[in-house]
């Protein structure tokens, strides 16, 4: 709550996976989150299953940051 910074904080679970290839692309990092309510991107199966499969090419040259939405996953 920006109007009341003393009201507290909310923890978000984030996992960072550095690129797997040579030099990273200059465009930067890819942020990954679940597409619907109630779905955790960090707890979605073996090594995040579909997300890593779909982003395999990007993962060679870009760091991936997986962010759980509030209230799901960790």
Write the layout of secondary structure elements.
Elements: E1 14-17, E2 30-32, H1 49-54, H2 56-61, E3 64-67
Parallel strand pairs: 2-3
Antiparallel strand pairs: 1-3
Summary, kept brief:
This protein has 74 residues and is α+β, with helices and mostly antiparallel strands.
Shape: flat
Written as H for each helix and E for each strand, in order along the chain, the element string is: EEHHE
Largest sheet: 3 strands, mixed
User: What do the pLDDT scores average to?
Assistant: 80
Q: Which percent range fits the helix content?
A: 10-25%
Report the strand count.
3
Low-confidence stretches: none
| Spatial strand arrangement across the major sheet | 1-3-2
- Given helix and strand content, the structural type is alpha+beta
Question: What does the radius of gyration come to?
Answer: 15 Å
- How many DSSP helices? 2
- Sheet-strand content, in percent, reads 5-15%
Distance between the termini: 22 Å
Question: What oligomeric state do these chains adopt?
Answer: single chain
